[in-house]
Amino acid sequence: xxxxxxxxxxxxxxxxxxxxxxxxxxxxxxxxxxxxxxxxxxxxxxxxxxxxxxxxxxxxxxxxxxxxxxxxxxxxxxxxxxxxxxxxxxxxxxxxxxxxxxxxxxxxxxxxxxxxxxxxxxxxxxxxxxxxxxxxxxxxxxxxxxxxxxxxxxxxxxxxxxxxxxxxxxxxxxxxxxxxxxxxxxxxxxxxxxxxxxxxxxxxxxxxxxxxxxxxxxxxxxxxxxxxxxxxxxxxxxxxxxxxxxxxxxxxxxxxxxxxxxxxxxxxxxxxxxxxxxxxxxxxxxxxxxxxxxxxxx
Length: 298
Description:
2 domains; 10 strands; alpha/beta; globular; Spore Coat Polysaccharide Biosynthesis Protein SpsA, Chain A
């Protein structure tokens, strides 16, 4: 496994403040047989110049006009030469042994893709919490939307090339839910494993796309429509739970982040009408811990 080429795909748009540390975290991996593919998605800052400044033949820059992060990731997949493909966002970073440990788990567990827990970090990339993945059914976890499935999926997943060669891609019609759809596409077709320790750093910024509630609502409705097309919502009871949980989350987002309490209230009421059990599920989740970010000692 030590001579296995891994392609690390990094989409970048105006990533000037972060890209040097992000690329460096890949080049400093203990598993050295890798290539870094930075897809510059029409940046107007010095992102491209910073990437070109690396005097390392393993770094490749693909410059293109702006087409969105999902399209950029797909472009990176197309250009990848490795037997395995890893993903990393331009403002995040890998721990030094991330690739080595994930490759080892892929071999020992005989799975097609792997992910780990992640460190939640402040804007300076200093850890302040733990994002723990799940060992439960990922399809159910992602669709129910209460617990974390694959934390920071697009800075976490390492997948065999055979999966993407079979057609798994990022859906360009989605925004911040594209990573969840990618997880659903993988988890519904290919075996996977979780490494129960943090192997990456996920930077949490106040400008996160998830703060845009209208986009959040539209994106997740599209995600659930795609899940139906994939045949993942055939069970009527499960489908009702998924719909109710989504309405509850959308309502809470409008209430807390969107400053539209009446709009949020209507979604919350709709959630209860779809499936009254949503209240019990949410209360149970609150009692077990309302935050997805755990203290570092857990």
